[in-house]
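Human: I wish I could look at a protein chain and see how it folds. This is the protein in question:
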Amino acid sequence: MDTYLTTMQILGLAIGGMCHSLLGSIKVPLANKLNIKEDKVGALVSAFGFTMIPMAFVAGILADEIGRDLVMGIALGIMICSVLVLANAKTYIAAVIAVLLLGTGWSALVNVLNALQGPAFLPFFGKDTPLSSAMNLGDFVFGAGAFVMPIATAFLLAKVGLKKTFSWFAVLMAISLVFVFFVNWELLKPDSTKVIDDWLRVLLTDSVVLICCIAFFFHVPTEACVALWATTLMKDRGVTDGKASTLLSAFWLVFTVSRLVAALLMPAGMDHTILIVLAVTCTTATLGLALSRSQQITVGWIILLGAIMGPIFPILIAQLLGHVGENIDEQLIGRAIGLFFCIGGIGWALMPLIAGKVAAKASVQKAFFLISVGAACLTVLTIILSKLAI
């Protein structure tokens, strides 16, 4: 086991999770500092999300071509620059540039980190442990970073202010960057050295790769929509603002812990069955939210969704990586991850937009009928995926 690799992975995943919730954590003080309204704050969040669509794909190509170590180092370097620019931003344009840089670095970072989950974490488990256990453990660390970030940010903002909060975050990124130079990257290089010129055709014509990517297209917006409108649903059922925020934190806590539970208890050979059960339950719960008229039942469905949605992404990407590594070529793992995130990012951008229009014309609750259709599509695709694995 490479201790430097595991330490770098833990720090990198925690930082990745923190970046994921960074803008939400500093939204109010940043808006006050720049004197901008909610629409411009929303545009900053969108700018971060949209960078994932092209950059995750580009990062995957670069990781396979020039090496994961270089991509990892460049990604962290860009992210350090971005938070320092954001710390000193005095105009909205400067903040937009900083967020675009942050999204670019983050997209490259998560590509490499997902490729390294197995080597970094499988040594902690016993023989014949499925890759999904390592993916779930890594994504637990990512989720823990996202969960801790708002708490840590609130503490630092009260103690040292916005600028120094960003500076401390940059220091944490720099520590992770140091470990990049100590990892034995030679041991992580693919054994295969053959040239695959038509790699995009190879990936897009592979049934398992395509099904995994389309399944992620439906899963990631379902997760995003539940997180986005959970508080609105609860408030519509009479839950107070304070309690709704607390329950949303509980949703994310359950979401994160479910990944740790899956990492520790996932039985070998059961990935496909568990994925189908989770997808079916997700469909039932989102439909339940669309039909619920009770405060308690609505809250119950939201917390249940936290528990069942947490492990879906790690299991799904484990299926993708395992298949590409064993049946296509290890050299294409970075590209496969990039394609996976690119297609998922399109779903992330489109579904909340469409659901938002439905919510504006009808209600948020009615929008969950559409979201449940997306979850049903995910269910169908997981069943097809299990058939392809036979």
Q: What stands out?
A: The chain has two domains: 3-185, 199-389. The CA atoms of residues 359 and 367 lie 5 Å apart. Residues 3-185 form a domain with the Growth Hormone; Chain: A; fold (CATH 1.20.1250.20). Residues 131-180 form the longest helix (50 residues).
